[in-house]
Amino acid sequence: MPPLRRRFLVLGLDGGTFDLLNPWMDAGELPFLASLVRSGASAPLASVYPPKTIPAWYSFATGQDPGSLGIFGFTEPDGGPGRSRLVQTFRPAEAVWDHLSRVGVPVGVLNFPLRAGYPLNGFLVPGMISENPPTFPETLRASLEAELGEPYVPELPAYRSSERASWVGQATHGVEQRARAAEILCKKYRPDFLFALFRETDRVQHQHWAELAGPRDGVGRDLREFWRAVDVALAKIDGAFRALGTPAVTLIISDHGHGPAQSDFFTNRWLAEEGYLVFQGRGSGLRRRFVSSALLAGEKWGPTRRLLRPVADRLRGGPKREAFGRLFTGESSFEAMAPKIDWGRTVAFSYPVPEGIYLNRYNTNLTAERSAEVVAEIKHKLRHYAAAHVEVFEPKEVYRGQNLANAPALLIKIDELETELRMDFSYAKPMLRERPGFFYGTGVHRMNGILIAAGDGVRAGRRTAPLSLLDVAPTILEGMALPVPAAMVGRSFAPWLGLGPN
User: Which of 3.40.720.10, 3.40.50.300, 1.20.120.450, 3.30.70.100 would CATH assign to domain 7-260+445-497?
Assistant: First the structure.
């Protein structure tokens, strides 16, 4: 009897977490997701580190970890100190859909973070990284927009509290449009593998986590409608995919989880305090230090606190607004401060990945012996930092792959990710334990995302021990009765789902 080749639908909820979804499903707010959990299997899905959108989704797609891909964040070094660029692509590594396409399986990819589409046995509509990226086929965007009757919705803009209604409305419209696009593309291309990503879930949670995770009667109607739209969109895509034939399996996955942002740690401020990062003369941003201290003091007084949020809000949302704000507050970004750093004396800094500490390759006096001493010193000091619980890792402790040319010397995690790591110099002290009300957003990433599996042959069950994001691609291939390439380091959990070989 030949092995059973199942069709696979993979729906990505960026930042999806059972911490939010479970109570909403229990309350009847998300009936489609709840039906999948009841009839299928579910488990936490551990992300890679750092648990950020680009390295996580790329690791899912390829079955390789950031150490194999050489991708550790949204950005990578690009030239001299303080210069970086967006990560270009996961290629030459291959995604699960590349393997499927090569053996003749029709595939479709919708809204995956890429700069451009490339030839496949099917279609690819990139998203997130740039506006209007080229699709494959090249004429697909125009024909899709013609059938939709409107332009394809781009990535959400920067958030401003004063524009909440239109911003959440755009997020909801993007979710609804993606479902319609997937329905159109399913009928046209009839894929046996389809991946579609909803980025809006992560963006909404970053801004409104405190509200979403609170009592449901305190959640705004706009946010409830957004999540209902997500649930309906998932159901529509699932229906369109299953209408093409069976047996079919649906996987709902996320790249990482989400939770409350309790505090912030400014790594470069700490490195400067400890003498590892050195400024030229008085170039450490005295005006910014003074202004930030005044803002934090003003946050403690009611009338000033009520004024700060709308003022800060008006200074967000575009280069001109932000440039105007910097005239008064002073520069704070690492890029702006980089020319003021004494690179001949600096031995360590955090850039361009905020979870990383890099040794200064531009310091010609930093010998291999001294580098090893610096790494050991920083590791010891951070592990004994009194103001927070800090975990410190070397890349070889975290990654299996050895493509570490752009990797930081150390990776750090603080307070189980409740404290967000930042590279800028916005505040005078390294630890900002209480985020002020005018701060940007209330949510931050967590390690554990979600896995929900349902469909033909899937065995019902739940587990509390996390599976790995790296395990998903091997599971898809095994579930489709195809060999798993040696480059994929994850292990298939198809047998747990009941999808192993016949």
Answer: 3.40.720.10
